[in-house]
Design brief:
Layout lengths: L4 H27 L12 H16 L10 H16 L3 E9 L2 E10 L3 E11 L9 H21 L5 E8 L7 H8 L3 H5 L1 E7 L10 E2 L4 H14 L4 E2 L9 H6 L4 E5 L8 H7 L23 H19 L1
Parallel strand pairs: 3-4, 3-5, 5-8, 6-7
Antiparallel strand pairs: 1-2, 2-4, 6-8
């Protein structure tokens, strides 16, 4: 059917309007800031390679990486070298505890809004009785691999990213308290989130999420929900790891944990596939906390959750 002249004019006008609207939408889309890329899937092999190095360091230094011992300093030097090579600005903070020198390692990724800082941290020291590969090589390795992934991706987040490895946690959160207590009030208020990772590869793992800040808690729960992995609120280590000084200072905190000396219940075993009646980590604070004391599935899931939260919360 042919259109009349007047009908053709109306149709042409309508087409022009559609084209104008479409071109305007395209222009708006082009001018909108791009959404940052999704968080990467961290290579489990990379995380485990760091654990192997930490084990080797402990073996070469009396079997541990404890505060004030050569194994701790060697662990710190290993992490720092990786970060320096990846383009981070690193700083070592020195303190004294129990008559021995301790060290924190702080690494800043260039760029991002310095008034909105997202931090991810873990304690790097072990107890003197063992190598501390789950407690807390697991968290330290995952945070390190996340930091290296940021560098590999040349990620440019809206917020500023900072990573930290704490000393003397096993003596009472000494390193993290030292850091927080020396922050000016303004610098504390600039930290929009502190994420803590302490024991994330327990051999009989649970999946526990800190409930200190609702937004951070939701971020982790969303990630595990996407995997079809149920979570529970973390209670065993509540206030016993390096998030506590930040929380006391008014900083929003969150984190992950796979369990220590508490015993897995039958309901938890049914939910997560573990062994009821057995501790989440039978080698907690023991000489058997070696690279053999890691559940690869838990380490892989939690390491990816570290990266997911860092990306999501720093956009």
């Amino acid at each position: 059917m042919k259109l009349s002249v007047s009908a053709r004019a109306v149709a042409a006008g309508g087409l022009a309007s559609v084209m104008l609207l479409t071109s305007g939408a395209v222009a708006d889309a082009a001018s909108a800031p791009p959404r940052p890329a999704a968080a990467p899937d961290l290579p489990l092999a990379g995380v485990k390679a760091h654990l192997t190095q930490l084990q080797s360091i402990a073996t070469a230094n009396g079997g541990n990486r404890a505060h004030g011992r050569a194994g701790y300093k060697a662990s710190l030097d290993y992490v720092k070298a990786k970060l320096d090579a990846a383009g981070y600005t690193t700083a070592i903070q020195q303190f004294t505890a129990s008559g021995r020198t301790g060290y924190n390692l702080i690494a800043d990724w260039p760029g991002g809004d310095a008034n909105q800082v997202v931090m991810a941290g873990s304690h790097l020291d072990s107890v003197s009785s063992g190598a501390g590969i789950n407690d807390n090589g697991s968290g330290s390795a995952a945070v390190l691999e996340t930091a290296l992934a940021v560098s590999r991706a040349q990620y440019k987040p809206t917020k500023h990213l900072r990573f930290a490895w704490w000393g003397a946690e096993e003596l009472g959160l000494v390193g993290s308290r030292y850091y927080v207590n020396r922050l000016a009030t303004g610098d504390r208020s600039r930290i929009s989130a502190y994420l803590n990772f302490d024991m994330i590869g327990s051999p009989n793992p649970g999946y526990f999420v800190y409930d200190d800040d609702p937004a951070i808690e939701k971020t982790f729960k969303d990630y595990f929900s996407g995997l079809g992995v149920p979570t529970e609120i973390e209670t065993e280590g509540d206030g016993r790891s390096d998030h506590a000084p930040f929380k006391s200072a008014g900083v929003p905190v969150g984190g992950l944990f796979t369990g220590a000396s508490r015993t897995m219940t039958a309901a938890q075993a049914a939910k997560w596939g573990g062994t009821a009646g057995r501790a989440f980590d039978r080698c907690y604070h023991s000489s058997c906390d070696t690279t053999a004391n890691i559940n690869d599935t838990a380490l892989d899931r939690n390491s990816d959750a570290v990266a997911y939260a860092v990306w999501e919360l720093s956009e």
